[in-house]
Amino acid sequence: MPEDESSRSSHSNPGKSLVNGIKTNPASNSPKGSLSVPMGPPVYVDLAYIPNHCSGKNTDPEFFKRVRASYYVVSGNDAANGEPSRAVLDALLEGKSQWGENLQVTLIPTHDTEVTREWYQQTHEKQQELNIMVLASSSTVVMQDESFPACKIEF
């Protein structure tokens, strides 16, 4: 009786497994895995939303080195979950400092939080040096029974 494909491949490739469809050698895997995003040129965009409500779980200086935006939107209003994260705001400064060009960047927080206020005050000189402007909301939108701060962005 012929051996099926899956049993043959497991016998012919001992110690190898598939991760996302790619053969890997478990002994050579790093703790985070061996799959990494290859380096490439930076991506320039007009507007970027900082992932995961500006949580430190998914965003680091590498994000800001590679995703170069004129405007970054920072949401997050949950201090208990570290949103917005001071580390992510600091990562913006670190990443932007390595751009090699002094393009204007505007940071748009969607909420007025203690974290963003403290970061703004403590790093104001560095922000100016790196040509980063933090846009405070100067408008309020009123819809039925709700009102909330708003910013107008023109491209």
Provide a descriptive summary of the structure in words.
GO terms for molecular function: actin binding; microtubule binding. InterPro entries: MAP1, RibonucZ/Hydroxyglut_hydro. The chain has a domain at 43-149. Mean pLDDT is 76; it is low at 5-35. The strands form three sheets. It has a four-stranded parallel β-sheet with strand order 3-4-5-6. The protein has a two-stranded antiparallel ribbon with strand order 1-2. The chain is an alpha/beta fold and 155 residues long. The longest helix has 11 residues, at 86-96. Helices cover 28% and strands 25% of the residues. The chain is built from six helices and eight strands. It starts with a helix and ends in a 5-residue tail after the last strand. It has helices at residues 5-12, 51-54, 61-66, 86-96, 114-122, 124-129; strands spanning 17-19, 22-24, 43-49, 67-74, 105-109, 132-134, 139-143, 146-150.
